Amino acid sequence: MAFVALMTQAATVENEFFSISTPDDSWFLANDDALRPYGARVDVTRLDAKGATLELARIDYIEGAFDPTIYLEKQVVGKKDIFCHSATDFTDVYPSALAGFEAQSVGFKKTSNNYSYDCEAVAFNAGYGTFLVITAHRAGEPSLISRIVGSMKCKTNITPLYTTASMVTAAQAVVAKHHLPIGNNEHLSGVELAPDTATLTLKVTVPYITKENVNVPAFVMTKRDAWFRQAPEALKFNLLLSAAARERKLLRYLYVDTKGNEIGTLLIYPEEYEQVEQLEAERIAREEAAQQAREEGERAAKEAAELVAREAAEREAKEAARLEASKPIIYEVKRGDSLNKIAKQFGVSVQDIKNANPSIKNDKIQLGQKIVIIRNRYE
Fold it and tell me: For 111-121, b where at least 16 C-beta lie within 10 A, e where not — what string?
C-alpha cells in the first residue's frame, strides 16, 4: 500500500513499488504556499498476512539545505518527528550513503502494537533541499525496503515541481542562510534570474585562487569540461538546474574569488542541454549494451560449461558400461545348451569360451556345469 496526500490536478508517476503524485507547475503557482512548509511526502507500507505492519518507509523533502547531522539530531534523536516520539536506543549519528549521495544516518528501535521494529533515519542534501528517509522493519524479519529507496529514482518526483523563477526565489532564501558547497571547496554565493527570465546566473565563490594568478581561458575550459561530465546527475537531482534545463534557460556561471573579484564566466547555452541529454542517452545505451554483452557472455559460458559437463557424464557412462560389460559372467549350463548356442547368446566365439575354460575338452559340456564367459575382447 502506498499513498501521497496531495491535492487534485496532479501528475502521477507509477512503478512496481508505489505511486507518487506531485502538483504540476500551474497548480504550484496557484497554490504557492500549500506544500512549502511540509515538503512532498511518500509513505510506503508493507503488511503481513494478518494485516500488521511488517515494514515501512517514509520519504520527506524539506526545502532548505540543512546540515544532515544537525537535522537528524534535532528532528529524529530530539523526537520532534512524530514517528520517533516513542523511539528508544538511538545510535550515534554516523556517515552513510544513499543513491550516490553522501548522507548521515541514525538507528533506533520502536515498539508499536506489541511488535518491535528496527529503524533507521537517513538525511542528505540534493539540490536546494534536504531529504529525510525513515525506514523500519519488524525485528528479526528480512527487510525489503531497501529495494524501494535503493535507487531513489523517485526523488525528483517526490518534490514539488518548480518553474525556474519560483525555484530561484527559494534558492535565494536558502543561499542567504546556508553554505552550499558545489565541489572543490567552491560554494554558491548568489542566484539571479535576468529580468527577461532568459538567463540564470549562479555566482560561485572559489576561495583557493585569485583573479591575478589564474589563466582564465584554461580555468573556464576546465569548468566547462567538468560541467559536461557532471551535468546528467546535476540536471537529474538539482532542482534549480533541472528547472532551468526544462525551460531551456541560458545558464551563466560567474566565478569570483573571496574578495569578490570576477575570475571568469562560463556560459551553457540552451541547445547544449540537448547535447547533455544525448550524451546521457548514449551512456545509458552503452551500459545497456554492455549489460547485454555480459549476459550473453555469461549465458555462453554457462552453455559451454553445461556441454562440457554433459560430455563428461556421457564418457563416464560409457566407461561404466564398458567396465560392466567386461566383467566375467559365470554361466550355468542348461538342458539343450551347446557351446555354439552359448557363444551366440553372449556374442563371443566358441574359442573364446574354451580359452576362458581350459577344463572344456572336445567341446563337451555337462548339465549344471559352470563356465566363464569373457566378452571384453569384442568391446
Answer: eeeeeebbbbb
Question: What's the Cα-to-Cα distance from 261 to each of 115, 206, 221, 258, rounded to whole Å?
Answer: 61, 10, 19, 7
Q: Kindly report the backbone phi and psi dihedral angles of residue 115, in degrees, each rounded to the nearest multiple of 5, phi listed first.
A: -110, 145
| Identity of the highest mean pLDDT range in 155-164, 225-234, 244-253, 319-328 | 244-253
Location of C-alpha cell 527559494: 170
Looking at domain 164-268, which CATH architecture does it have? 2-Layer Sandwich (3.30)
Closest CA to 126 of 108, 148, 153, 145: 153
Q: Report pTM.
A: 0.43
Q: Are 44 and 146 in contact (CB under 8 A)?
A: no
pLDDT of residue 100: 64
- Give the DSSP H or E segment for 101: strand 101-112
Helical spans, DSSP H, in the chain: 25-30, 68-71, 146-149, 155-158, 164-177, 216-237, 239-246, 270-326, 339-346, 350-356
pLDDT in tens, 191-204: 999 987 899 999 99
Question: Which CATH fold would you assign to the domain 329-378?
Answer: Membrane-bound Lytic Murein Transglycosylase D; Chain A (3.10.350)
Provide the pLDDT for residue 186. 82
What CATH number belongs to 2-158? 3.40.1000
pLDDT in tens, 311-355: 999 999 998 888 877 788 899 999 999 999 999 988 889 998 888
C-alpha cell at 132: 529525510
